Amino acid sequence: MEPYYSFRPLRGQSSFIRSASRIRALLGGNGSGKSELGGYTTAEYLLTRKPPRRNCPFWVVSKSFEMVGGTAWGEKLKKYLHPRNIKWTTYLNKARDWPAAVGLKNGWILEFKSWEQGRDAFQARSIGGAWFDEQFPQDVFLETFARTRDYNSPIWFTLTPIDPDPFLQERYDSPPEGWEWFSLDLEDNRKSRGGHVSDEWIDAFIAETPDDFRDVRIRGKFAGFFGAVYKSWRREIHVVPPYENNTPPFSGIVVRTIDFGWNNPFVCLWMHCDEDGCWTVYDEHFKARELLQYHATAINSRPQPRQGIVRTWADPEAAQDRQELAKLGIGTATAKKDVMPGIEEVQRLLMPGGNGKPRLRVTANCKNTIREMASYQWETNNTERRDAADEPKKKDDHAVDALRYAVYSEKQGQWLTPDRITGAASVSSRIDSVMGGE
Hints:
By secondary structure, the protein is α/β, with parallel strands linked by helices.
């Protein structure tokens, strides 16, 4: 059986269709033809390959049943499956032609799923593959991937990465084995270039797209997203290789910074500041639901920098936890916690200087810090009390909070020379007296 509706691949589409990679990941701008390509690829796969068992499911997944039934099926996939290849259909909404499942005569069963159903709706069955159209939650993808293990089944997804997505970003930057990435640009779908969308519509769409969204909406790129706190964050310039033996250069100073947590992670970051005032986060401890004794042991087991740790900043509101840490040999200083000035200082350090390099970097081994720097967002829900952009969301903010404590507190304290006083009590009292702390 062959797809009965003609399909003429555009630039970059043929390689996606021919790929034998288990995970095919396609990023594309709006109107670039990504969903069309996903529908054709799904039909071509189902009509030319024998299912691993009779009545084997293949999942088509999108955010809502309206999207998966109306767009993925009704506008894309349906036209590539001739009615003679369909044995039966059951419906979620027959009047609107939203199928729940479509049985093919060769033994495949297309099942249409919404990730709004939640992860539980994706459990307990082996499947022969899946197509995700548009962005999806990490837990739903991982649950679907688990369902493919019996047959080593493929998954492909087609999306415009509108929302920050550290899970996919990490796999884009360092593709795991079996992953292959593709991209489609809206500009390549112009009729003047042999595509399917009028030049006039594309020109108007580009003109109406805010600058923050152009790389995303037009080119399907992971970029600085609207709503991101640190819009200038770019992995290609801010993430650097780890230090050899996890030990920073002897020049400059090293500080630690702590954000306490129980249900949320307890975070400790190690940060090196060189003689030019450039910061590098080079190690992290990131763990939830453990006692302070566990965290203290983990912190004290890290390699000691040759110049020593000159300060350990901590949340000033966690007085009891700071006292307990001091008893365990980790004295802390009262961090300056002002949110907006602290964010502004981090933003300033992230900006590239005249040499093209930023003054704040993170080594590649600090995966949680890297993830949070990319996903840290402004609050989006307006209330009577405040506007949406008055403060960042209290979600995935533990490492970024700790980082902010350190760089802002160091700036406020104007530490021009290393302070190498040792001893938990003396260090804390000396710093608190200078900073005006408790």
